Amino acid sequence: MVPELDPPCVIDVNDAVCSSPKIHKLGRILVSHLSRTFFPYRLDVSEKEVEDVLYTIGNLLSSDALIYGYPETLLLAHNYCTFNKLDVLALQRLLKQEFNIDAFCIGDVRSSLFNPLDGH
């Protein structure tokens, strides 16, 4: 976070992110800090949509509540967008069958990512 900027703000960090010839980014990486009291978060934006980001965030701020500095609509979308056990097994089988990749249990990634946001 750049200390001179007061939230809400969006910072383009694409050039500051470690880049290697082996990594091909498909868009821009931005950091959005919407609330003075909570943490910033990462935005991945298509190259075609970079110019529309500020307008879109402005619309979001004018129409959506912030929960822990994160838009409520996005928080709900993340909560409802989950894979059931059958989905996970099907994806693991596809990885093994098509690419010979063994899947392993890494715990509840969704929980570790979003628990700080939803308070559970």
In short:
By secondary structure, the chain is of the alpha+beta class. It has helices at 53-63, 72-80, 85-99, 109-118; strands at residues 9-12, 27-33, 41-46, 66-67, 70-71. It has a domain at 1-64.
Give your account of this protein's structure.
- The model has no long low-confidence stretch (mean pLDDT 79).
- A hairpin with a 2-residue loop joins strand 4 and strand 5 (70-71).
- The radius of gyration is 18 Å and the shape is globular.
- The protein has a domain at 1-64.
- The protein has 120 residues and is α+β, with helices and mostly antiparallel strands.
- The protein has helices at residues 53-63, 72-80, 85-99, 109-118, and strands at residues 9-12, 27-33, 41-46, 66-67, 70-71.
- The longest helix is centred in the C-terminal third of the chain and has 15 residues, at 85-99.
- It has a 3-stranded antiparallel beta sheet, with no helix packed on it. A two-stranded antiparallel ribbon has the order 4-5.
- It is built from 4 helices and 5 strands.
